[in-house]
Amino acid sequence: MKVLGLETSCDETGLAIFDSEQRDSDNQGLVAQVLYSQIELHATYGGVVPELASRDHIRKLIPLLNELLQQANLKKSDIDAVAFTRGPGLVGALMTGALFGRSLAYALSIPAIGVHHMEGHLLAPLLSDNPPAFPFVALLVSGGHTMLVAVKGIGQYEILGESIDDAAGECFDKTAKMLNLPYPGGPNIAKLAEMGNPQAFELPRPMLGRGLDFSFSGMKTAVHNLIKDNPTDINNSSDTQNRVNIAASFQFAMIDTLTKKCVKALKQTGMNRLVIAGGVSANQSLRQMLSHELAKINASVYYAPPALCTDNGAMIAFAGWQRLNANQSDDLAVDCYPRWDMTSLPSVINS
Ligand code: KG4
Ligand code: ZN
Predict the structure, then answer these.
(1) Where are the alpha helices (DSSP H) in the chain?
(2) 3-class SS at 79?
(3) Cβ(144) to ligand 1 under 6 A?
(4) How many angstroms separate the alpha carbon of residue 249 from the centre of ligand 2?
(5) Does the C-beta of 310 come closer than 6 Å to ligand 1?
(6) Tens-digit pLDDT profile for residues 116-165
(7) Do 194 and 183 form a contact (C-beta atoms < 8 A)?
């Protein structure tokens, strides 16, 4: 089955074709992928402007579909089903992909399905060369979410803990902004941190003693105070060391907190596989720390290739295929959910 995946929940227009009959190939069934990032469009405003995001998705969807089909050497009529992101995300942005995908499926008389964006992230590591078996604990860390989930199978999710305020990615982005680094902050902080001393400044590890929930707003305030006390003008070479040290200390505090919570979740559930997914899971220092700490408790960490960690159409095509393959699909009504509880998703039997 050839599934067209459409991702438009925020500021990336991602399209991909997943072909279940080519799953054994080198590319794990991913026949073609295109991604257009709106980063430059929003850069002037210091964050994503929802209305501009929606308009840009509309502008890009048709040219990107044509480019995708050309890359895959396919015609529209070769597509067997369409999967689009139904939520969570910006409602206007979601509506563009959902309406485009649903209409295309109607015109081609093929099924369509709305996919949960975080389920897309969660299942992306199954597309790697070393896919995890069920059950596992998943750490979902993106720009909008930080969650620990016990995953028994597809659609069998129990939330073990989540952030009560900022998401981990959001905290990377806000710290980057305070350091005058461009959006998205995660990769830029990671790059700056490479040159710094992670132990230069002591930052809080919030809520370590309290269950599996997270809180990052205190960490953000601590970074703010650190910057105030240690001027970080990039043009002033004497301050450059402070700047890299703040980036490194922040990143260390963040990944240390995430790692400790993951270890706790594995111990609590008795599971020995951890899957990390979402934009922050692309962070190499987080991957290294998890590998190191999990080895001590005989557990392993699994993740997607970096391009499948951040938003993309492939994860939506793949998650959609899992559900279409279990005979799930949507009717003609197009509903989008800016907020959507993952535990309300139906399970996929025999997953
Ligand atoms: O999953 P994603 O692409 O979009 C959402 O669903 O939110 O995640 C984007 C987030 C941003 O906050 C970005 O700064 C962060 O992921 N991110 C990273 C890295 N790459 C992206 N954070 C830390 N290290 C990275 N290498
Ligand atoms: Zn995402």
Answers:
(1) 39-43, 50-72, 91-108, 117-123, 168-178, 185-193, 217-229, 237-269, 284-295, 313-324
(2) coil
(3) yes
(4) 25
(5) yes
(6) 999 999 999 999 999 999 999 999 999 999 999 999 999 999 999 999 99
(7) no
